[in-house]
Write a sequence for this structure.
């Protein structure tokens, strides 16, 4: 990816915007806590976090008619522009003395409306510029930047918040997306526009295309289930670790640090999987993640649970790269962006829905049983996907044998 002339120019913008998003993991909720009424701080913090992600799923439907057929650079660039403007309005409103929790949540939601299209644009651009054999490496590098930003961004945000407050962090986040938008404008040559008729498709065209392709539909179902079952872990892990370690924040931090370290290694490794068959690799990732959760859910000693959680990060990291490579291979230029946008919307919805389901699960069963249950269901999901894949491979093999034997039988009949 770094050897490609255009992608090399975009790389600094990718790095800065990923870092900005990493810092926003802390700043978005922290500013919401400062702005919200004291009796509903936790609720507003959750609403603000959701507002910064979930509208992207809505935008994938609302703007499909106008954005279908656009090039990857256009889609990613417009997302960067929208996020720059809306995030920059937050510190402007703060300086003007009019920023309250309502305006803050609205601006966050507006900034995220093109989030799915921006993700689709990035990966469409990779597919447009790189040959198929290098797309997995390009996807892996983008995913690696995201994983690295989760390690570096929150710590950097904490330092900046200590000096200037969370509004300064959000202003920096806006500036990073401004740099990315300018980079798209200057680094990517203007591609020929798609015919007008190609753009006037339904906002649900991407979802319709997914439903018609059994391979992409199966991949979408697998992704939704995989991420949905990850959602309860985000709630159960702090509850379980807090109870086991006497409310030690350091113990919880240790789990996410080892997960992030494993994910960095896994992100690097993902770029070297192109010679492997990606469907079996993707299903193996799901199974390996379920196995990695078992010690934590079974109440294993802290050291064992930490080691396996690091392994979990290692196997988790290649999943976005392999699934996106499968999508890129099964779609064509005219429909690729809208299919990836719809797929991104499905992935965006799955984790918050799983997180919401985690609350009642923990209340009824406890944190540790919830983790164990999610591990078991993840293994069941992976085994079901493996069974479907094996069945389809056998049917295809039988069809090939029948097709090869048919000409010889016809020849024998003519000879008789």
């Amino acid at each position: 990816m770094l050897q490609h002339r255009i992608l090399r120019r975009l790389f600094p913008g990718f790095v800065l915007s990923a870092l900005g998003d990493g810092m926003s993991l802390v700043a978005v909720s922290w500013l919401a806590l400062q702005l919200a009424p004291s009796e509903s701080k936790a609720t507003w913090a959750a609403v603000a976090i959701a507002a910064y992600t979930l509208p992207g799923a809505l935008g994938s439907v609302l703007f499909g008619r106008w954005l279908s057929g656009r090039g990857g650079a256009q889609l990613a660039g417009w997302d960067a522009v929208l996020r720059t403007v809306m995030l920059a309005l937050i510190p402007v409103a703060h300086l003007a003395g009019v920023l309250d929790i309502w305006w803050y949540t609205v601006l966050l939601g507006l900034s995220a409306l093109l989030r799915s299209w921006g993700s689709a644009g990035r990966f469409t651009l990779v597919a447009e510029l790189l040959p198929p054999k290098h797309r997995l490496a390009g996807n892996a590098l983008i995913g690696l930047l995201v994983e690295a930003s989760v390690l570096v961004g929150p710590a950097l945000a904490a330092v900046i918040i200590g000096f200037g407050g969370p509004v300064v962090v959000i202003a920096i986040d806006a500036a990073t997306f401004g740099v990315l938008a300018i980079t798209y404008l200057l680094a990517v040559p203007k591609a020929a526009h798609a015919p007008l008729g190609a753009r006037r498709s339904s906002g649900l065209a991407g979802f319709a295309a997914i439903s018609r392709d059994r391979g992409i539909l199966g991949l979408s179902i697998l992704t939704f289930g995989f991420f949905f079952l990850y959602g309860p872990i985000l709630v159960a892990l702090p509850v379980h670790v807090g109870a086991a370690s006497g409310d030690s924040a350091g113990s919880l931090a240790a789990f996410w640090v080892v997960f992030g370290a494993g994910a960095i290694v896994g992100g690097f490794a993902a770029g070297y999987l192109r010679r492997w068959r990606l469907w079996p690799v993707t299903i193996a990732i799901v199974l390996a993640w379920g196995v990695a959760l078992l010690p934590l859910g079974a109440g294993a000693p802290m050291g064992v649970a930490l080691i396996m959680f690091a392994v979990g990060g290692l196997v988790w990291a290649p999943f976005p790269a392999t699934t996106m490579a499968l999508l890129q291979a099964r779609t064509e230029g005219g429909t690729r962006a809208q299919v990836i946008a719809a797929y991104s919307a499905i992935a965006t919805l799955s984790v918050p829905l799983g997180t919401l389901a985690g609350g009642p699960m923990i209340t009824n069963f406890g944190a540790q049983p919830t983790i164990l249950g999610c591990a078991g269901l993840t293994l069941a999901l992976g085994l079901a996907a493996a069974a479907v894949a094996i069945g389809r491979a056998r049917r295809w093999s039988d069809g090939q044998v029948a097709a090869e034997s048919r000409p010889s039988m016809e020849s024998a009949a003519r000879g008789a």
The mean pLDDT is 83.
